[in-house]
Amino acid sequence: xxxxxxxxxxxxxxxxxxxxxxxxxxxxxxxxxxxxxxxxxxxxxxxxxxxxxxxxxxxxxxxxxxxxxxxxxxxxxxxxxxxxxxxxxxxxxxxxxxxxxxxxxxxxxxxxxxxxxxxxxxxxxxxxxxxxxxxxxxxxxxxxxxxxxxxxxxxxxxxxxxxxxxxxxxxxxxxxxxxxxxxxxxxxxxxxxxxxxxxxxxxxxxxxxxxxxxxxxxx
Length: 219
Description:
Oligomer: single chain
Largest sheet: 8 strands, mixed
Distance between the termini: 32 Å
Strand order of the largest sheet: 1-2-4-3-5-6-7-8
Shape: globular
Number of helices: 8
Order of helices and strands: EEEHEHEHEHHHEHEH
């Protein structure tokens, strides 16, 4: 299905019934990474899996910014009259969910975020070097935004009042200390580290993240 916002056309897939759950993929991916998780989640939620701008079947744009991507999701929620959704985001999708919570938390019931950083410095040094090398040759928009955004302060994180559940892999490309810093500054938050997992191995084409979402939402 397609929903037209003020700036782009967003492709999305809808499954199941129950409390609304919006799912946002990471950089260079599309909503199909969640199909295995959705096979579990659709029995408990109305799942909306979105291709973010410049990804999958959604509109291509001249440049990428996380704030614009968050605004797309805000319009998605308001145009479809989705009441108090849970928003799950992985990597870039988690950053989008976090910005959405900062700007429009009154619309949401909670956010669940995986592999998220609030500053480019949250990435491990070798990962940043790889992105810089890749950007030098490709000039890819999706890599540029990773190297320059987000820029969310700890003071901003303190303003989030809805529940926030964070996950990371023990072998993630985000610094473990950065995960802890984010969780320490969000008042109503939890942090779970998946042992022996990389940035997305427990998420992409996996039901592990579905089990986790069911667990935190049943509390």
